[in-house]
């Protein structure tokens, strides 16, 4: 059976948007209009959440002093995280695709203070429990909305190493926490298809089979 | 300042797709071509993940016997979950929008066995830890891809109440688990804008302020 799924009247732009929403880690310094921040945040609100509780709280940090503080925490967390990867990358057999991603991550860590918007996706806990299943779908919508309006971003969670300090800086209540930090700005690079394993390695019908 | 963000050359279809990806809980019984399942799964693979590790494993259950088993577990978990909501809904002051959502949830729980595809988004743990931040962005991509090709779905995690039993049924390894169950089929209802709080209640600049 070979069904031409292209003829089903699908929304090609929506699929193509997802296909090309590569992580952007290098940004121009131009500011981002608050209206666009509001627009990408709004896309986040259309994500699903358990019991439609919509536990998200978005904090878009644009103040330069605050961004410097956040970047300092991020750099500290990053240095601890990247050390093993740096050592692995010294090996000549280290894949060049991973080296490129690592260079992007290093660039971001060293220049985070200059990224115009530090967009935090925070949320309410529920009975003391984190609710990632009701937060990360909104995160993905925001990343896709950035792509849709021409902004760049990427998903980071490293700031959690200093979660307490950063949540205090963001003015969050005790029963709220920041799950993700999305640096947002105008991309220096182009949106392209990200490097991924083929779906045929990930998809199983009826039952998982060890490869 | 009133910038007309509509003129920035944004990808309206992508934004509109997110805006109208309402949870679908009522399905036709028509089967779903495996090519379309592959297509929505592929959209999942374009999501970001920590260190680009792509920990996801997709298991699309179409076998009727297995779907009955899964539906039986789901119903058991659902009945325990819905009881407090049913009691609350008996109050005449219970909001009609929430009553409608509850009716949809009840319909799904009672008819899950007949939904043609039980699409599980599973994934590898990392150092024994769950990685929801690297799974739920893929979940959201899959939901949006369903919407893009005209399929319906919704995000459920209730099956986790019987996670051990279901992961075994799915043939998952010990260091894998199923995070989400997305029932997929052709929608009976229309895609519409879901009911959400205004973004202006959720978005804060620089610092959260208690309303």
Question: How much of the polypeptide of chain A forms β-strand, as a percent range?
Answer: 5-15%
Mean pLDDT of chain A: 92
The CATH homologous superfamily name of chain A equals NADH Oxidase
Termini Cα gap of chain A: 25 Å
Describe what this molecule looks like in 3D.
2 copies of one chain form a homodimer. With 211 residues, chain A is an alpha+beta fold. Chain A has a single domain, classed as 3-Layer(aba) Sandwich (NADH Oxidase). Helices cover 39% and strands 12% of the residues of chain A. Chain A is built from 6 helices and 4 strands; from the N terminus they run H-H-E-H-H-E-H-H-E-E. Chain A has helices at 12-19, 34-45, 64-89, 96-111, 136-149, 163-169; strands spanning 56-61, 117-124, 176-184, 203-205. In chain A, strands 1-2-3 form a 3-stranded antiparallel β-sheet, with helices on both faces. In chain A, helix 2 crosses helix 5 (136-149) and helix 3 runs antiparallel to helix 4 (96-111). The longest helix of chain A has 26 residues, at 64-89. Chain A starts with 11 loop residues before the first helix and ends in a 6-residue tail after the last strand. Residues 1-8 of chain A have low confidence and may be disordered. At the A-B interface, helix 1, helix 2, strand 1, helix 5 and strand 3 of A face helix 1, helix 2, strand 1, helix 5 and strand 3 of B.
């Amino acid at each position: 059976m070979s069904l031409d799924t292209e003829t089903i009247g699908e929304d090609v732009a929506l699929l193509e948007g997802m296909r090309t929403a590569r992580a952007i880690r290098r940004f121009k310094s131009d500011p981002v209009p608050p209206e666009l921040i509001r627009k990408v945040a709004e896309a986040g609100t259309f994500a699903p959440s358990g019991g439609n509780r919509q536990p998200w709280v978005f904090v878009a940090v644009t103040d330069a002093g605050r961004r410097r503080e956040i970047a300092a925490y991020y750099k500290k967390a990053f240095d601890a995280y990247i050390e093993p990867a740096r050592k692995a990358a010294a090996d000549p057999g280290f894949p060049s695709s991973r080296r490129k991603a690592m260079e992007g991550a290093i660039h971001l860590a060293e220049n985070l203070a200059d990224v115009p918007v530090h967009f935090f996706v925070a949320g309410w806990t529920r009975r003391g429990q984190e609710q990632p299943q009701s937060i990360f779908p909104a995160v993905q919508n925001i990343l896709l909305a950035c792509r849709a309006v021409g902004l760049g971003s990427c998903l980071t969670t490293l700031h959690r190493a200093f979660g307490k300090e950063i949540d205090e800086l963001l003015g969050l209540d005790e029963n709220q926490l920041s799950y993700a930090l999305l640096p947002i700005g105008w991309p220096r690079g182009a949106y392209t298809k990200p490097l991924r394993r083929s779906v045929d390695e990930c998809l199983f019908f009826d039952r998982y089979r060890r490869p």
